[in-house]
Amino acid sequence: MAKLPSRLPTWNQLIGDSSEFSRQNRAFNSISILTLLILCILLPFNLAIGLREVSVAIMVLLLLQCIFYYCSRFQKRYKFGTVAYIAASYPVLGVTFYYNSGSLGPIMLLFFLTFNLLVAFTPRRTHYLWAVLHLALPAMMLTVEYLYPHLIPDNYNNRQERYIDILSSYLVTLICVYLITNYLRNNWEKEKQTAEERADKIALQNKHIVHQNTNLDELNHKKDKLFSIISHDLQSPLHSILSSLELLAEFDLPEADQKKLAEGLLIMTRNTANMLSNLLTWSKSQISGVNFNFTEVHINNLVERVLSVQSLLARKKELPDHYGN
């Protein structure tokens, strides 16, 4: 004995997941299911009151609607289902008008219901077309009935049958309009919530961008300051080297002074090269994010060496040095 399914399919499974189906496609699937329910409700009422022609039309439309739903939901042929649904709706309304006693029956309610169904799942640009058709076709049918009343037969056997048919059609229309309106309202609220979440996300991204821009401005300021310091630190030893070379070129210095200047030039050149090497190492560490180790430097020795060279330069230029010579 075959087992029954553990649970009925959910509404999301019946109309298709939003990740696979477009909003219009899901709307058409929803309307298809709703239309099937409407037809299943109207069919027994029309059979009960003896409207065989209308019942046959409903059964044909019920079969067609099953095909439309299958094409849209399982074969993803949404446009075909939409066009076929629209193409079948108006002939069925015409047949219902003729065999359901014209304006004496519930045809106007069915026109109103069909219009709501079409508006619910078709693109906005087509709504004007449905509005024109639902104004023109009923007006034309009512005009024909008014001018040629003998063409439209009264198929109700008594007032009770007409009462049951109109009341059932009204209740079905009322329920369907509520369901359609509620469906559209829920979709609108979901889209509104999605838009608000997207706006919050954009605001958060903008805040993050502003924070990044602030950090970039701070980094640029630090970079400018660092370049200023480096430029000054490079300018001083280069000027000292230039002065030493000029002194060697312009004066015939004793061998001891030449040796002292040469040692000073070597020290300043080595220090400048070390500073550039350290600067490159620091730049690479900033790019790669690798930390670097500081080393201890004896400032007194460096200062004494620089001052000894500067004292020699000052004496040759007849300037007092720091020793008062």
Describe the structure.
This protein has helices spanning 11-15, 23-48, 52-73, 78-99, 107-121, 127-147, 159-250, 255-288, 299-316. Helix 4 packs antiparallel against helix 5 (107-121) and helix 7 (159-250) packs across helix 9. Mean pLDDT is 79; it is low at 1-6 and 321-325. The N and C termini lie far apart (119 Å). Helices cover 78% and strands 0% of the residues. It is built from nine helices and no strands. It has two domains: 11-193, no CATH class; 212-316, no CATH class. With 325 residues, the chain is mostly helical.
Overall geometric form: rod-shaped
Number of domains: 2
Number of strands: 0
Low-pLDDT residue spans: 1-6, 321-325
Largest sheet: none
The value of Rg in angstroms is: 46 Å
Give the strand content.
under 5%
**N-to-C order of helices and strands:** HHHHHHHHH
Please tell me the overall pLDDT. 79
| Number of helical stretches of at least 4 residues | 9
User: What is the straight-line distance between the termini?
Assistant: 119 Å
Structural class: mainly alpha
Helix content: over 70%
List descriptors.
mainly alpha; disordered N terminus; 2 domains; 325 residues; single chain; 9 helices
Quick recap:
The chain has 325 residues and is mainly alpha-helical. Helix content is 78%, strand content 0%.
